[in-house]
Amino acid sequence: MFLENTVNHEEQFGWIEVICGSMFSGKTEELIRRLKRAQFAKQTVEIFKPAIDTRYDEEMVVSHDSNEIRSTPVPSASNIRILADGCDVIGIDEAQFFDDEIVTVCNDLANRGIRVIVAGLDMDFKGNPFGPMPYLMATAEYVTKVHAVCTHTGNLAQFSYRKAINDDLVFLGENEEYEPLSRAAYYKAMLKERVNKFDVKDAEELQAKLKNKNA
């Protein structure tokens, strides 16, 4: 598990820690754990989350295990830079929902000597890199990837499969809308989706084309 950087106390630069993974993998739980350790050490800590995330509480950052810590909801990444003055540690939850400026903000804060801890989904429901997360992971000193348990196989899960019929990239939800899947289970689920969407008319047209081609 990650240990706080104590190598060179004279260095005036901070650093970035990224906690990433699928839904239900414990990202927020780990973020809260690190932030509370900093608070116990009498460090000045501020936590931010995107204003659109109101699933559990409008102000609190809450994990699936109901652990919580007070935060400041902000509409954009630029607000974090303004509100971070005088802090030793900054926590950011659900970073994938922020605009791309979050990458510059995090690096600016680290360059000012602040420890920045970021948690977020590394992939969206389609299995693609999610928003600014790849860039945050690339510039971070420490990256921790946590895993959920696949609801189909019991193996480690790194994909967030969307059960709800909704193609919006940003779609807030919980157990009813999402489930964590392993690579094998996710591949099978996506293949099943494609088969179900394959219209009978499309199949007939394809069959006719193949027949004409072989004629």
TrEMBL record:
Recorded superkingdom: Bacteria
Enzyme class of the recorded protein, top EC level: transferase
Main localisation: cytoplasm
GO molecular function terms listed in the Swiss-Prot or TrEMBL record: thymidine kinase activity
Enzyme Commission number(s) of this protein: 2.7.1.21
Keyword Kinase: yes
Keyword match Metal-binding: no
InterPro entries assigned: P-loop_NTPase, Thymidine_kinase
Subunit structure: Homotetramer.
Name of the protein described by the UniProt record: Thymidine kinase
Taxonomic lineage of the native organism: Bacteria, Pseudomonadati, Bacteroidota, Flavobacteriia, Flavobacteriales
